[in-house]
Amino acid sequence: MLARPILVTLTFLLLSLPALGEQRALERLDGSPIEPAFIDRTVGELMQAAHVTGIGIALFHAGRVCFLRTYGLRDTEKGLPLTPGSVITAASLSKAAFASLVMLLVQGGTIDLDRPIYQYLPKPLPQYPRYSDLAGDDRYLKLTLRMLLSHTSGFPNWRAFEQDRKLRIHFEPGTRYAYSGEGIDLAQLVVEAVTRRSIADLMAEELFQPLHMTRTSMVWQARFESDFANGYDEYGRSLGPERRATADAAGSMQTTLDDYAVFLSAIMRRQLLGKHAVGRMLSPQIRIHSLHEFPSLSNATTAANDGIQLRYGLGWGLYSSPYGKAFFKEGHDEGWRHLALCFIDGDGLLILTNSSNGEGVFKPLVDAILGATSFPFDWEGYTPYDQLPALPKLKEHKAVSVSHQELARLVGRYALSTDVVMSVTIDGDHLFVQENDETKQEYQAQSTTDFYSTTSSDECTFKLRDDGRAQALVMHVDGRDLEMRRLP
């Protein structure tokens, strides 16, 4: 495991105070006092023990930010500290923001949660190339925005996880919970069709700008270059930032600790979204009996969370805590692990990390800072860092030299499915692989057809035609071999 310096940035924003210089005493949910120095010490010790690169913490009381600090680094190579204004990938925290936008449209009468979505589209859903797999399954006619936002559509999380990479409805829409990024992306299509505006523009104009979230966007902005965080994998290898060029309601949002804290505060204080709209968004839509949140389509069930009434609302998870009703949203992407946990009376905690090890500190942090919340850590799969198995030893590779001419035969675009395309490019004698519009990654040759990532444990193999040009790309990721055909 790579050692990392722990640096606490000297930032303490008193955003909730009526006058600067006067600080409200911090308290846990049970009313016991908690000192900022205790939070600093706890975060620092956990970061070092769990090998987390950087963490941002925001605490809320009565719906307002009462504590906000960042710890650790946004760039380990340059030694740059993570700041409250450092732009990070929000991952699935994007979904909660998108759900709030939908509720703004519902509040304004632009869209109806229960109207079948096909009625909003100018052509049948299967006529859209991305949804052609649904031809012949009329259950898509039953889909509503309520189902898509409550993860009851019947879709998988992502079609790329399916054996044949095709999108299908696995159960009667509306009858059970199964987390689905596909459902959120379909909701994005509907919203863009109804408003005739891009989701990037809608989110900026209707949500980010009114709340003065000045360093938040659904796509990368040039202004972010002044202060952004790299994501880091479990071994401490930099994955870089995610300079997304295409807006994705399910996970492309770039934000900061400052800005997302403002967003959560606005939800708790019914700012922008009124009391009725927030109430509808945070009202239970479906009871959750799944053993774990992932894999989302598993049929394993449990009654372990019946006591806390674990349910899903519209874009948010819900449960009953000893301190009242709570709502939450997590973010999980390579190099990014986040958790927002809020209570109906306005208390809450936001944790943002730029490390794939981040989830290992969620339970000890929540327990130390908020107290006994009854949060469903096991259902989420949040195993504390000191209970995780040791990381496997990194595979050793032997790099070889491959000529520019041999690399040129591999250049092209390779499709796993209609929505996952890998672009292979070269720069001199260096080969790069890029998924959709995410950050491209360099791959080092270990033969003329076999390559390994210089920043992760992923590997790939090219299958060649008789003339030596590549006809397929096989990505070796997390023990799976994903073969992709070369596009013309």
Layout: helices, strands, pairs:
Blueprint (H helix, E strand, L loop, with lengths): L35 H15 L3 E8 L2 E12 L4 E2 L6 E2 L3 H15 L37 H5 L31 H15 L3 H10 L22 E2 L5 E3 L13 E2 L1 H12 L6 H7 L4 E2 L23 E2 L4 E5 L2 E10 L2 E8 L4 E6 L8 H8 L7 H4 L23 H5 L3 E6 L2 E8 L2 E6 L5 E5 L4 E4 L5 E6 L5 E8 L2 E7 L2
Antiparallel strand pairs: 1-2, 1-13, 2-3, 4-7, 5-6, 8-9, 9-10, 10-11, 11-12, 12-13, 14-15, 14-21, 15-16, 16-17, 17-18, 18-19, 19-20, 20-21
Short description:
The chain is α+β, with helices and mostly antiparallel strands.
Architecture overview:
- This protein has about 500 residues and is an alpha+beta fold.
- It folds into 2 domains: about 1-390, Beta-lactamase, CATH 3.40.710; about 405-485, Lipocalin (Beta Barrel), CATH 2.40.128.
- It is about 20% helix and about 25% strand.
- The protein has helices spanning about 35-50, 95-105, 145-150, 180-195, 200-210, 255-270, 275-280, 360-370, 375-380, 405-410; strands spanning about 55-60, 65-75, 80, 90, 230, 240, 255, 285, 310, 315-320, 325-335, 335-345, 350-355, 410-415, 420-425, 430-435, 440-445, 450-455, 460-465, 470-475, 480-485.
- A 9-stranded antiparallel sheet has the order 3-2-1-13-12-11-10-9-8, sandwiched between helices. Strands 14-15-16-17-18-19-20-21 form an 8-stranded antiparallel beta barrel. A two-stranded antiparallel sheet has the order 4-7.
- The protein is globular.
- The model is unreliable at about 1-25 (pLDDT under 50).
